[in-house]
Design goal:
This protein is mostly helical. The relative contact order is 0.15. It contains 9 helices and no strands. It is 84% helix and 0% strand. Helix 2 packs antiparallel against helix 3 and helix 7 (225-233) crosses helix 8 (235-291).
Length: 366
């Protein structure tokens, strides 16, 4: 299908620029609510740490007792200890998730939006005559909550994945290095395809947003009273508006179809590689080790399969956040550029505005 629209490609961003933009956003979010933010990240690490003991070591202990007919008391003591720890720490999890995390999100969103609005108050009239300024301003305001949620989410995911890597990763590196390497290799393929999808998502959003703004401008003409009167007096204006609206709408639809096809193909390829390479490959290898070589017990196979999926999910979460960080950093770059706008129309005397509203009075005017 031929493209009847202009694509706004994702700009190339170096690794240094991505790191700089992420640190800018991290500093902003952390400064808005330091304690809730830090405690929320620690809670994610703690949960991942406890999941390893609960779903790997504890289950393996119980299954080994069943397979080798050991006394149940060997499994009862670890069960009681972990249950007590989970009961106590669940209180911290409830406080963090239900109270502190929403508080941190609201504080960070308010701070970022206030920075944008304060900058918008200081720009000169030249910006208001430029339609591109409105596109940039709307983009920054619209993306501010998403970027705050992204930064809080990426810190939570990285903290949780770090806890999984410290526990499950070390466990696999000791018990089965081939499985660990297989998970790592599949994650490398995942990051390559995820970066491609991330760039396509950015291109689709920015291109679509341009056409959406154009249709919004045209729709506004028809519901403003002054313009509506003008259209009734001049029939050619109405036809031109309909024509421009149709061109913008068709361009938006063509853009969505073109990008969606490419994104779906990438995601399907990614899913196929992960399913065939990781899931089937890991299952066949562990079954071979247990049934043919007899180097693993059946309890070890079960817990290692579950642990493998957790380890793979942690790698994928890290890789996905790295890939999407490039996409979100493009929006962060737009926000930073907006905040750096400089006034080009200034007073030679550098006069200050009057601090309060005043009235004008005319006398003896003929």
């Amino acid at each position: 299908m031929s493209k009847n629209f202009e694509i706004e490609k994702a700009p190339r961003m170096s690794a240094a620029k991505i790191i700089t933009n992420n640190l800018f956003l991290l500093k902003l979010v952390f400064s808005a609510a330091p304690f809730p933010f830090a405690l929320y990240a620690f809670e994610q690490f703690r949960v991942a740490f406890m999941i390893f003991f609960e779903h790997t070591l504890l289950i393996k202990t119980v299954l080994d007792c069943v397979q080798y007919q050991r006394p149940f008391s060997e499994a009862l003591i670890p069960i009681l200890i972990i249950a007590a720890i989970l009961f106590v720490t669940s209180i911290l999890g409830s406080v963090t998730g239900q109270w502190l995390q929403p508080k941190a999100v609201l504080a960070a969103e308010t701070k970022l939006k206030n920075m944008i609005f304060d900058k918008a108050k200081d720009v000169d009239l030249k910006c208001f005559d430029d339609p591109q300024y409105y596109n940039e301003f709307n983009l920054t305001v619209e993306k501010a909550p998403q970027l705050v949620a992204y930064m809080i989410d990426i810190v939570a995911v990285l903290a949780s994945s770090l806890g999984t890597l410290v526990t499950t990763g070390v466990y696999f590196s000791v018990e089965s290095k081939p499985v660990f390497l297989l998970v790592l290799f599949s994650s490398v393929l995942y990051v390559f395809l995820s970066i491609k999808v991330s760039k396509l998502n950015y291109s689709k959003y920015t291109t679509t947003r341009k056409y959406e703004r154009k249709t919004e401008y045209i729709r506004r003409i028809f519901y403003l009273p002054d313009y509506a009167k003008e259209i009734r007096l001049n029939g050619e204006v109405k036809d031109q508006c309909f024509e421009k609206y149709g061109e913008a709408y068709d361009g938006m639809i063509d853009n969505l179809v073109w990008h969606s096809k490419k994104i779906n193909m990438m995601q399907l390829l990614n899913w196929g590689i992960q399913t065939l390479l990781l899931d089937m490959g890991t299952t066949l290898f562990l079954v071979y080790q247990a049934s043919v070589k007899e180097t693993l017990t059946y309890a070890a196979v079960i817990v290692m399969m579950n642990a493998c999926w957790r380890l793979s999910r942690s790698f994928r979460n890290i890789v996905y956040k790295i890939a999407t960080s490039a996409e979100n950093c493009m929006y962060v770059e737009k926000i930073k550029s907006f905040l750096k706008l400089e006034n080009e129309i200034t007073s030679e005397e550098n006069l200050e505005t009057y601090p309060r509203p005043c009235s004008l009075e005319l006398k003896n005017v003929s």
